[in-house]
Amino acid sequence: MTLFIDEEGDELTYEKPHHIKFVEDMETHGIPWRQYKGRYSYAGPAATTDSLNDSQDIIRSTTVKLVSDGMGLETIWYPG
Questions:
Q1: pLDDT digits (tens, 9 = 90+) for 2-31
Q2: Total domain count for the chain?
Q3: Sequence-ordered list of residues with C-beta below 8 angstroms from that of 45, at least 6 positions apart, any chain
Q4: Under 8 Å CB-to-CB from 53, ≥6 apart: which residues?
Q5: What CA–CA distance (Å, rounded) separates 62 from 26?
Q6: CB atoms within 10 A of CB 78
Q7: 23: nearest Cα among 51, 46, 54, 55
Q8: pTM of the predicted model as reported, rounded to 2 decimal places
Q9: Looking only at Cα atoms, what is the longest distance across the chain?
Q10: Segment (H or E) for 55
């Protein structure tokens, strides 16, 4: 398990390698992330954006396969 602190100050531990890699990549590139409990039983780290440029930054910042959910004007990206 690896301990991380998200943008909201919550301490979170992850065991899945793709979750750990995603968080490490987001932190390396200065992209805020948080715990997300979303569609299809997903629970894990995610990054949120409200622009195409920010989405491209997230996509380019990691080699982890990503899935996105539209949430109004925002898009949330998380490991898939």
A1: 899 998 899 999 999 999 999 999 999 999
A2: 1
A3: 4, 6, 12, 14, 19, 22, 23, 26, 33, 34, 35, 36, 78, 79
A4: none
A5: 7
A6: 24
A7: 46
A8: 0.90
A9: 34
A10: helix 52-60
Average pLDDT over residues 22-48: 93
List for the chain the helix, strand, coil content (%; round to 5).
30, 40, 30
**Residues 63 and 69 sit within 8 Å (Cβ to Cβ):** no
Q: What is the pLDDT of residue 51?
A: 85
Is residue 79 very low, low, confident or very high in pLDDT (cuts 50, 70, 90)? very high
Q: Which of 50-54, 62-66, 73-77 has the highest mean pLDDT?
A: 62-66
Beta bridge partners of 66: 79
Under a CB-based contact definition with an 8 Å cutoff, are residues 22 and 31 in contact?
Answer: no
- Domain limits at 23? 2-79
